[in-house]
Automatic annotation (TrEMBL):
Family statement drawn from the similarity comment of this UniProt entry: Belongs to the 'phage' integrase family.
Coiled-coil stretches: none
GO BP: DNA integration; DNA recombination
Entry protein name: Integrase
UniProt keyword DNA-binding, yes or no: yes
Domain Tyr recombinase, chain residue ranges per copy: 204-412
Span of domain Core-binding (CB): 101-182
PROSITE patterns, sorted: CB, TYR_RECOMBINASE
Keyword line: DNA integration, DNA recombination, DNA-binding
GO molecular-function terms, A-Z: DNA binding
UniProt key word DNA-binding: yes
Alphabetical list of SUPFAM superfamilies matching this protein: DNA breaking-rejoining enzymes
InterPro entries named among the record's database cross-references: CB, DNA_brk_join_enz, Integrase-like_cat_sf, Integrase_catalytic, Integrase_DNA-bd_sf, Integrase_DNA_bind_dom, Integrase_recombinase_N, Phage_int_M
Length: 436
């Protein structure tokens, strides 16, 4: 059923159904009070009551589950219905008793009720970080009832074309908070952060903003020299960046990697770096962007990095911070930034994206790999699976049961060889630039 469709229940809602429902729509309760549960496409859920007050049809916000359970929402709806039948106006009474709330306070109350819905602590921290960095300095102290479109634009416009993905997520988060504030009775009127029919008429579509649309990638021609430069650097962050490059994984997947996710195979004793060809890293669904388990075929080079790492007692993370805990995303990015700064100081252009001339970043290495795989003639699906991307439609994915792990193992070995300055030609391997 399409998003936004109205679902009229043949019987009253149940508490179990309220807890489990996720599909967007309006789920009506029985009893004739006009109560229904609204589920937005972004997953937010709100109790709403539709009543006619003095001949005018109105909608009253009654809070959000789980803070407001089904039984409490029904009690509120029944009370409002009694007021209306007695000739009163529950909406006016609600406005008269409504206290003021700043945007900063609204964020805290919204997150308090939504904590259980976030996939992990990192997701919640990302919410707070983007709002604290960009929204709070400009609208944090404003009353939510006074925030208008122009105020939201003051937050978004400075980063809309330079940090488009961040700005787009920020807009959605502001919209969620403002929607909660309206349902909770702290403001009325349209949502100033709504995209369709609102900000979409003022700001360019994110997909059309090219400057900040893609992460700057490393040029293929520069990859071997970049890899040699990285190999000369020491430290946990530099090693994490090497592993990230060899596996084409996302930064968060590497930084959150725990030792119990790894099967490093066995050393056959003939060589210090000899490993079984079964070394695998299995990332649980809870840590994946696509929310499904992902297996990574580890090359001998990747395993060698892991085996050389120290282990910190009481810390499950493979790549840990100096004071314990997970390595920060900024520390990995800083390695690439310092590499670029060294190049520029030496009078060279450095490692920049050939299209936009911006310095390459860790996430852009995934694009570099994808281009390399395409030029080497590897099957598209195999390369996409290596990047943990969804392949085809939902039906096609249902029939695609194999993750091509062993075929990907050979591909990743060739990728490692390319980074070392080698090019696979059939069964032979030649050094790039070694002829003559």
């Amino acid at each position: 059923m399409p998003n936004g469709a109205t679902r009229r229940a043949s019987k009253a809602l149940s508490a179990a159904m309220v807890r489990a429902v996720q599909e967007p729509g309006k789920y009506h309760d029985g009893g004739g009070t006009g109560l229904y549960l609204r589920v937005d496409p972004n997953g937010s859920r709100f109790w709403v009551q539709r009543v006619t007050i003095h001949g005018k049809r109105c909608e009253l916000g009654l809070g959000s589950p789980p803070l407001v359970p089904l039984a409490e929402a029904r009690d509120k709806a029944t009370d409002n219905k009694r007021i209306v039948r007695a000739g009163g106006d529950p909406l006016s009474e609600k406005r008269a008793t409504r206290s003021t709330l700043t945007f900063s306070e609204a964020v805290e109350q919204y997150l308090e009720g939504k904590m259980a819905e976030f996939r992990n602590e990192k997701h919640c921290k990302q919410w707070r970080a983007t709002l604290s960095t960009y929204a709070m300095p400009k609208i944090g102290r404003m009353q939510v009832e006074t925030i208008e479109v122009r105020d939201v634009l003051r937050v978004l416009e400075p980063i809309w074309t330079t940090k488009t993905e961040t700005a787009s997520r920020l807009r959605g988060r502001i919209e969620n908070v403002m929607s909660w504030a309206a349902v909770a009775g702290y403001r009325t009127g349209d949502n100033p952060a709504r995209w369709k029919g609102n900000l979409a008429e003022i700001l360019p579509k994110p997909s059309k903003v090219t400057k900040g649309g893609n992460h700057p990638a490393l040029a293929l021609v520069d990859a071997p020299e970049w890899w040699r430069s990285l190999a000369r650097r020491e430290g946990m962050a530099a090693q994490a960046l090497q592993f990230l490059t060899l596996t084409t994984a996302r930064s968060g997947e590497v930084r959150g990697m725990a030792w119990d996710e790894l099967d490093l195979g066995t050393d056959d004793g003939s060589d210090a770096r000899a490993i079984a060809t079964t070394a695998t890293w299995t990332i649980p669904a809870t840590r994946m962007k696509g929310e499904r388990e992902h297996r990574v075929a580890l090359t001998p080079q990747a395993v060698a990095i892991l085996r050389a790492l120290p282990r910190l007692d009481g810390n499950p993370y493979v790549f840990f911070a100096p004071r314990g805990g997970m390595l920060s995303d900024m520390s990995i990015s800083a390695v690439m930034r310092r590499m670029q700064e060294s190049e520029v100081k030496a009078g060279r252009a450095g490692f920049v994206d050939p299209r936009n001339k911006r310095a390459a970043v860790p996430h852009g290495l995934r694009s570099t790999f994808r281009q390399w795989a395409a030029e080497q003639g590897y099957p598209r699906d195999m390369a996409e699976i290596a990047l943990a991307h969804f392949i085809g439609s939902e039906v096609e994915r249902a029939y695609q049961r194999s993750d091509m792990l062993e075929r990907r193992r050979a591909m990743m070995a060739d990728w490692a060889g390319f980074l070392r300055g080698e090019a696979a030609q059939g069964d032979a391997v030649v050094k790039l630039g070694a002829a003559g």
